[in-house]
Amino acid sequence: MDEFSYAHRNTSGVNKWNKPDIPPELQRIRDGAFAREIPVARDDSLSFLIALAAAVRPRRILELGTAVGTTAAALAFICPYAHITTVERDKNFYDEAVRNFDSLGISPRIFALLGDAGGVISALEGQFDFIFMDCAKVQYIKLLPRLKQLLRPCGVLIADDVLIFGWASGEAEVPRKRKMLAQHIEEYLSAVTEDPELITSVVKVGDGMAVSVKK
């Protein structure tokens, strides 16, 4: 079962109510990304992130995994006073994201960086109120210690796709070649749910999100 099939099966009953609060011009960019099968957040995931960000009202946001910029843009619109740092390792995606930020008029508040997430965050300074991680899943557990340092007290860390096609939850058998990936995700989930410095809830949105709040 592929990612879309799994996520669609588990959210199709409520998706008619999950319409992201975004401007039409951003929706057109999302539609184009979907048509090209670019991995951008679907309606339920984006609606959840928007609602969470609206409640937290972050001033500094960090995103790992920009793709073509649709999630960063949505957060920029819902949090008009926030400054967003977003990291992407794919040069083509990065270039397209920068163009999208310019066309949407939000580029002054978005600091887009090209590079590997681990290398980039090691050089970041200060703390963030809201961190959204949607980069290579095998990196999640490796990035966690540094992300905890970058997260301010009461800040929120969201890790996307943590139920990985139902593998981590046991709803689907893990293919042999994906066992290492599933193991890394399970290690991440164990780490954030058992960490005394974090309060974590795993929610079945999209392909699963782990939402952690730093005490």
UniProtKB/TrEMBL annotation:
Molecular function (Gene Ontology), one example: O-methyltransferase activity
GO biological process: methylation
CDD domains in the cross-refs: AdoMet_MTases
Entries under InterPro entries matching the protein: SAM-dependent_MTases_sf, SAM_O-MeTrfase
Keywords of this entry: Methyltransferase, S-adenosyl-L-methionine, Transferase
UniProt KW DNA repair keyword: no
Keyword ATP-binding: no
Domain of life: Bacteria
The protein's name in its UniProt record: O-methyltransferase
